[in-house]
């Protein structure tokens, strides 16, 4: 567990082809089912302090035990840390995430500890931030506010994965 951010709840992969990535996780790794949304609904998004409306992100979520796996494909040219990651010739694990209930306090503590914001946003599930302080590839730290909506959605994804029999591996909407 991170002394600053709490338990690791999610690992996030930035991919060029989310459909191929989901198939790989299902067919090779046996992880699923995947809950996919073609366009993540965001109510705000900023990159390096500048607001960028209309970013098009396709997202897929599945669980392996208590750890959620997130696949992200950016489908536009909006500046973002995802685009930077791919432009640097990387693909795959980009971040790990915690979901604290005391989001504001940890956000301020991270800034006071020298972390800087790379990107952040808001959605119907709650706020999120990606800190720029990556030590090596795959260690960007994301923090998502553990709102009641986020908790309910993510708990449902985890529960479905626990008894998953391999059927219906890609679901084209998230639990409500």
How would you explain this protein's 3D organization?
The protein is of the alpha+beta class and 176 residues long. It has one domain (11-163): 2,3-Dihydroxybiphenyl 1,2-Dioxygenase, domain 1, CATH 3.10.180.10. It is built from four helices and eleven strands; from the N terminus they run βαβββββαβαβββαβ. It has helices at residues 18-27, 81-87, 103-112, 148-162, and strands at residues 10-14, 34-37, 44-47, 50-51, 57-64, 67-74, 92-98, 117-123, 126-131, 140-144, 170-171. Strands 4-3-8-9-10-7-1-6-5-2-11 form an eleven-stranded mixed β-sheet, with helices on both faces. Strand 9 (126-131) and strand 10 form a beta hairpin. The chain is globular and about 45 Å long. The two termini are 29 Å apart. 30% of the residues are buried. The model has no long low-confidence stretch (mean pLDDT 94).
Write the layout of secondary structure elements.
Elements: E1 10-14, H1 18-27, E2 34-37, E3 44-47, E4 50-51, E5 57-64, E6 67-74, H2 81-87, E7 92-98, H3 103-112, E8 117-123, E9 126-131, E10 140-144, H4 148-162, E11 170-171
Parallel strand pairs: 1-6, 2-11, 7-10
Antiparallel strand pairs: 1-7, 2-5, 3-4, 3-8, 5-6, 8-9, 9-10
């Amino acid at each position: 567990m991170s002394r600053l951010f709490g338990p690791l709840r999610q690992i996030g992969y930035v991919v060029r082809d989310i459909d191929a990535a989901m198939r790989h996780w299902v067919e090779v790794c046996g992880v699923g089912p995947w809950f996919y949304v073609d366009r993540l609904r965001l109510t705000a998004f900023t990159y390096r302090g500048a607001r960028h409306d209309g970013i098009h992100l396709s997202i897929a979520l599945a669980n392996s035990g208590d750890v959620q796996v997130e696949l992200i494909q950016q489908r536009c040219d909006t500046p973002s840390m995802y685009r930077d990651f791919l432009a640097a010739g990387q693909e795959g694990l980009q971040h790990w995430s915690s979901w604290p209930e005391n989001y504001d306090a940890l956000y301020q503590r991270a800034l006071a500890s020298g972390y800087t914001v790379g990107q952040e946003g808001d959605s119907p599930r709650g706020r999120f931030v990606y800190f720029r302080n990556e030590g090596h590839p795959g260690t960007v730290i994301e923090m998502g506010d553990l709102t009641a909506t986020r908790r309910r959605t993510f708990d449902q994804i985890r529960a479905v994965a626990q008894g998953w029999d391999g059927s219906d591996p890609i679901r084209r909407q998230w639990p409500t």
